[in-house]
Structure formats: structure tokens, C-alpha cells
Design goal:
This protein is α+β, with helices and mostly antiparallel strands. The protein has eight helices and seven strands; from the N terminus they run αααββααααβββββα.
């Protein structure tokens, strides 16, 4: 058993025993490896965010919070292929690409038989070309979205004008091959879309962001300095929007 498969199997072993803890020695015997190897594997799981914990003393050991993990899922061959293709297409510039890679590893480790082989063969034939999005910018955007906090960023528009903004993230939009952060811009007092590859710097804060409806922000303005994507054609403007809104122009909003 390779390490990726063993990590997945460790999680399932701990889940099956939960809430009862298992000792390192018991896990080592179960997978026929050394206690040192199991200890390293458990540390890796902890560092990657898997909710495993250790309880010292007699009767202690390693356990997992079953409410924080998904139960085993059985995929059909088509479903496995669809997931493999989707995750393979998540290049380094895609938001949450790191999580996509680890998810792909877990899915691959959990599948066996023809479904696994078909999915892996298909994923090997998917090629993506990365766009030049700074990894630190992507990480800051991911953190602000996950924690629902204000994001401070520097942005270059299509004309090369740079501005500093404080924004309240609402979501992400993929249109015409580009990723946009859709947010309430405190500077413009309106909904705005910021192309990720035009954000030159970004820093999350600890300030809680006000909740904003993603659909309303999309209705109120197009992605910044871009033609409104055809993806949004089905979103009918609200009754108050009687004039055509141009990208980059502050929109009238009830927020």
C-alpha cells in the first residue's frame, strides 16, 4: 500500500473506531508498518487539517471527530471520471487548487477496480495552461472568502491604472477563461468584479465583512473593466436598474 492510500485508510480506520481512540501500536499492526511510520502519517494528517487528535495517558491514543469528515462515498465510473477531470483541470492559478490536489489524491486512494483505472487514465489526458496569478494573492483571496473577512488589495485595471481597495468578498466567478473575485468595494460603494491576475497584492484582515448576496452584486455590475460575461445573461437586472451599467463605473446600489 502506498502512502496516499495508507493515509486515506488511516482516516477510515479511525472513523470506524470513533469515538474510541486507537493506539499507534494497534494502527501499525493493522497496516503492517512501523510505529514510527504511523506516527509520521498521523502528523501529516493533522498538518493538512484532518480532525485527528491524540489523548495521552492510559486508555488514550489517536481518534478523529466523525462529524468533521465525510463518510465513504462510492462513485460510478462516470462520476469518478467527472471528478478526476474536474480536479485535473484545477491548475495552480485556480482558487483552492491546493485543496483540489489533496482531494484528488484522496479520491484516487479510495477507488479501486475499473472505475479507478478509467478515471486516472482520463485525468492523464487533461492539460491546462496556467494564468499568471500570484500564489500569495490567491491564498489571500481564499482566506478572506473562507473566513468572511475584509480583504485589502491593489488592483490594475485594463488601462494600467492601479488603485488600493478594501473589499468585502461575496464569491468567485469564472467567465471566458478568467477568474474574478466578486465583492462589495468600499471605495466605489458598489459591487465589483476583480480579475485575479490583475490583483498585484492582497492581504486579508481580521475585520468581519458584511454579508452580501452574490446574485445581487452580479446584477448590479459587470466584472470590472470587462464586457459582462454571457454567463450572466440569465440574471435579470433589478427594477431599479433602468440605465445600462458600464464596467468600471460606480453602480447605484441599495447596500
Amino acid at each position: 500500500m502506498n502512502r496516499t492510500a495508507r493515509l486515506y485508510a488511516l482516516v477510515e480506520e479511525l472513523r470506524a473506531a470513533a469515538p474510541r481512540p486507537l493506539t499507534v501500536a494497534a494502527l501499525a499492526g493493522r497496516f503492517e508498518v512501523s510505529t514510527r511510520t504511523v506516527q509520521r502519517d498521523l502528523q501529516v494528517l493533522m498538518e493538512t487539517g484532518v480532525p485527528v487528535r491524540t489523548t495521552p495517558g492510559r486508555g488514550g491514543g489517536w481518534s478523529i471527530d466523525p462529524e468533521m469528515t465525510l463518510p465513504p462515498i462510492h462513485f460510478t465510473a462516470d462520476e469518478a471520471s467527472a471528478l478526476a477531470v474536474a480536479l485535473a483541470a484545477a491548475d495552480a492559478s485556480t482558487p483552492y487548487s491546493g485543496a483540489a490536489r489533496t482531494a484528488a489524491q484522496k479520491i484516487a486512494a479510495s477507488m479501486t477496480g475499473p472505475a479507478a483505472a478509467a478515471a486516472q487514465e482520463l485525468a492523464a489526458r487533461i492539460v491546462t495552461l496556467s494564468s499568471p496569478t500570484d500564489s500569495s494573492v490567491r491564498a489571500a483571496v481564499e482566506q478572506a472568502l473562507t473566513t468572511n473577512t475584509v480583504l485589502r488589495l491593489s488592483y490594475n485595471d485594463a488601462a494600467g491604472r492601479e488603485s488600493d481597495r478594501a473589499v468585502e468578498p461575496a464569491g468567485l466567478l469564472n467567465a471566458d477563461g478568467q477568474w474574478y473575485l466578486i465583492a462589495w468595494c468600499r471605495t466605489r460603494r458598489a459591487g465589483r468584479g476583480f480579475r485575479l491576475d490583475r490583483i498585484t497584492a492582497a492581504a486579508p484582515t481580521t475585520e468581519h465583512a458584511q454579508p452580501h448576496d452574490l446574485t445581487e452584486l452580479l446584477r448590479g455590475s459587470a466584472a470590472a473593466d470587462a464586457v459582462q460575461p454571457t454567463t450572466l445573461a440569465s440574471l435579470t437586472p433589478p427594477p431599479s436598474a433602468n440605465r445600462r451599467h458600464h464596467p468600471g463605473e460606480p453602480s447605484r446600489s441599495r447596500h
